[in-house]
Amino acid sequence: METKYAFGYVRVSTGKQDELSPDSQAKLLKDYAKSHGYVVSKIFFELGISGRKADKRPEFQKMIGLAKSSDHPADAILVWKYSRFARNQEESIVYKSLLKKKHNVDVISVSEPLVDGPFGSLIERIIEWMDEYYSVRLSGEVTRGMREKAERGGYQARPPLGYKIVTHKEPPVIVPEEAEIVKLIFEKYANENLGIFEIARLLNMHNFKTSHGKEFERRSIEYILQNPTYCGMIRWNRTINESNEIRPESEWIVTDGEHPAIISKELFDKAQERYKREYRPRGSRPVSTYKHWLSGVVKCPACGRTMTANTIRNNTRVYSHFRCYGYTKGKCMANNSISSIKLEPAVLESIKTVLDSGKITYRKIEAKTDDTVDLKTILEDQIKKIDVKLQRIKEAYMNGIDTMEEYKENKQAVQEEKQHLEKQLSEIKEEKSNSKDDDEDMLLRVKNVYDILSSDSVDATTKNDVLRSVVEKIIYEKDKDLLKVYYYYMP
After folding, report:
1. What is 118-179 written as a DSSP string?
2. Which residues form the Recombinase domain (predicted)?
3. In whole angstroms, what is the distance from residue 108 CA to residue 115 CA?
4. What is the average pLDDT across 13-35?
């Protein structure tokens, strides 16, 4: 008789009283395997995790991945109940079909034996449907119980800074030293008109920490300022658990809590009035684009963090303003900032000074790392992208989207950029064919970068990429009005 192999899968949800323990489930799987001629090669344990979403069960995903292997390590997957495999019938059908039809792996419930044939499959679907129905009903009962507790003022979340749980099922109590931090935040914000970043910097300067033991930043201060727990209220049902998306305010439950307040309701309301008055939604930056060709390269001399670019618009021009990211988060004490109007010519002038002198200091990197970039590869990639852009410009004209004049204008602008990059690429290839020492080769690379940065026909993304091919970082010291460019060389 040929030996059959099986995986075992054990899952226990948090707080479920009617479930078998992990050890008990594993014993049942082993007993079944022994009596049915299976050898259990591995048991996967998923503890304290819901079965509603398969992608949130790492051990389940690992098991499925192994079961699909070409060496066919398992003939079956054993579970205590089908509900342990999946609580969602659609997901259950997908995974079972995948395993059975493509990999000849059965899923067997050791406590729910089935007859062979179509009738057995029907019974299996009914069992799964009942499990899913039970799960949904149970979830509804739990939610209803939590809602009723919230309406009574019961606290049922992780206590924020300033509170701790001493006795299970009892309201949180105040932690005096942490409560002083909370009071300070509200006083500084509501009565002394300090900004969120200024408060964060003040707290970090005194080495105060959040409830997670981290430094304060904008989000942690905002969370405290908006949390009604501190004035003796409780707020429930604000977010959707799985996505953390904020629900409409009409669906929240906000009521008097059973726990003691740290600040007065009047102080909390005063802070809310200011926050709503001054709040501005933060925009998002596309992943594939740069705000400026110096983005990510300029660093703060005080903390080493990146100086990020923010777009400034006035009546006459649009430009970028670079400021230390740590300072904007309240994590850096130094207010290092500079506008692109001043920074751009300073960087170009610094590079030109090096080229004119014929002397350059750089760090030699023997092997390519994630932070280094090959200039030749960058230019080749950009030329390919320009070829695609030219084809799209042509298609826009052929499809009647652009006029002949628009087509000619767009084509000329893109071709100028392509010609400029091709010239630089040709020079680089010529340089590589000639034997040069490192210093000479480095100066030629910097010259090519300088020419690209000085061109008006090259986009910001390309400029940023080529700059990173020779420049490791740029440090700007505001108090000394000093700019330092740090070069690197990779043979």
Report:
1. HHHHHHHHHHHHHHHHHHHHHHHHHHHHHHHHHHTT---S---TTEE--STTS--EE-HHHH
2. 160-281
3. 12
4. 80
What are 24's two structure tokens? 């008990």
Q: Of 56, 62, 90, 88, nearest to 74 (Cα)?
A: 62
- Is there a contact between 320 and 339 (Cβ–Cβ < 8 Å)? yes
Q: What is the mean pLDDT of the chain?
A: 79
Rounded-to-integer distance, Cα 65 and Cα 456, Å: 51
Domain extents for the chain? Answer: 4-141, 163-278, 340-489
Given 13, 83, 295, 320, the catalytic residue: 13
CATH of 163-278 given 3.30.70.20, 3.30.230.10, 3.90.1750.20, 3.40.50.2300: 3.90.1750.20
CA distance 199 to 196: 5
Q: For 4-141, which CATH superfamily applies?
A: Resolvase, N-terminal catalytic domain (3.40.50.1390)
The contacts of residue 206 (CB under 8 Å, 6+ apart) are none
Furthest CA-CA distance within the chain: 88
- How does pLDDT run across 96-151, given as a tens digit for each residue? 777 877 788 888 988 876 645 554 555 455 545 555 555 555 445 445 555 555 45
Q: How many CB atoms lie within 10 A of CB 132?
A: 21
First and final C-alpha spacing in the chain: 63
R_g over Cα of the chain: 32
Closest of 188, 221, 472, 226 to residue 331, by C-alpha: 221
**Side-chain-side CA neighbours of residue 173 (13 Å):** 8
**Residue 228 CB contacts under 8 Å (≥ 6 apart), including other chains:** 234, 235, 254, 268
CA distances from 236 to 167, 249, 273 (A): 21, 11, 21
Q: Are 322 and 339 in contact (CB under 8 A)?
A: yes
Bridge partners, 255 (sequence order): 234
Rounded Cα distance between 194 and 479, Å, is 24
Of 229, 230, 65, 63, which Cα lies nearest the Cα of 156? 229
Give CA–CA dist 343/483, Å, rounded.
Answer: 9
**Active site (annotated) includes residue 13:** yes
SS3 label, residue 31: helix
> Mean pLDDT throughout 434-458?
82
> Taking a C-beta distance cutoff of 8 angstroms, is the pair 91, 99 a contact?
no
- Asked if residues 84 and 51 have their Cβ atoms less than 8 Å apart, the reply is yes
Answer yes or no: are the C-beta atoms of 197 and 329 closer than 8 Å. yes
